[in-house]
Amino acid sequence: MTLSTVDTSLWLRTYHPTDVAPIRLVCLPHAGGSAGYYFPVSRALSPRVEVIAVQYPGRQDRRAEPGIDSLQDLARDVYEQLRSPDDRPLALFGHSMGATVAYEVARLLEDDGIVPAHLFVSGRRAPSQHRDERVHLQNDAGLVAEMKRLDGTAGGLLDDPDVLRMVLGVIRNDYRAAETYRWTPGPALHCPITALTGDHDPKVTLTEAAAWRDHTNASFALRVFDGGHFYLNSHQADVLDTIRTALTEVPHR
User: Fold this and answer.
1) Phi, psi of 45 (to 5 degrees)
2) pLDDT tens digits, one per residue of 82-92
3) Alpha-carbon 101 to chain mean position
4) Nearest CA to 218 among 127, 118, 122, 101?
5) CA 121 to CA 14: how far, in whole Å?
6) How many angstroms separate the CA atoms of 169 and 175, rounded?
């Protein structure tokens, strides 16, 4: 890799930095999510895995920046932050919208001759499995109803008008980017893929999750958990075990 001249501190959050971890795991949030969602993952996997959480523009300390317009453009921005002289193997984990971004980042890395150690895709249908979704076109009440249906926001935050004023614009932008994404056919990845999903996730069927198999010429695994779109909130230990097991099989440099 070549050293990037951009400031990665806005994009990449390493909550538990360590030079002894033999592998790095880049974690990409869901629509409306932030890097902090992966703080518990970083804490649990350190020091065996160094977790790098991505902070998208338009939220929290980046709220003054324009939001997301295109998942492909977002993936390219993330890819640019990852171009560093660190030669440790790099794996990717993305949930929901973040899974698609992780996939597109993996494609860019492989185009650059860098095969990711592993790609973990959670709560998202395979890129080739299109759905005509238009949640981003709904009014505010409809958007809030969709978020409550997915149960991705803790507590009664969505009932707080002040919170809604701060986050609805960002969430709508994220939904627009995710729902207008169109897969461009190309070569299958060379890295292993593990797809993780809830067994009654309204956003992805088991068939759509299993179709990730078609996007790699390496090994593929499908893990199905009891739960909906945010199944991983109640199955964190099992998800972490899945990650640890897969990453222990990666050759260390």
Assistant:
1) -90, -20
2) 987 788 999 99
3) 6
4) 118
5) 20
6) 10
> What DSSP string describes 34-55?
-GGGGHHHHHHHTTTSEEEEE-
CATH code reported for the domain at 8-132+184-248: 3.40.50.1820
Under DSSP, is residue 164 helix (H, G, I), strand (E, B) or coil? helix
Q: Which two tokens stand for residue 169?
A: 């614009």
Closest CA to 32 of 102, 124, 95: 95
CB 121 within 8 A of CB 96: no
Residue length, the chain?
Answer: 253
What are the structural domain ranges in the chain?
8-132+184-248
Residue with tokens 């920046």: 65
**Exposure string for 130-139, b = 16+ CB within 10 A, e = fewer:** eeeeebbeee
pTM tops 0.85, yes or no: yes
d(Cα 13, Cα 9) in Å, to the nearest integer? 7
Of 84, 96, 122, 128, which residue is the catalytic one?
A: 96
For this structure, is 96 an active site residue? yes
Summarize pLDDT for 59-113 with one digit per residue, the tens. Answer: 889 999 998 889 999 999 999 999 877 889 999 999 999 999 999 999 999 999 9
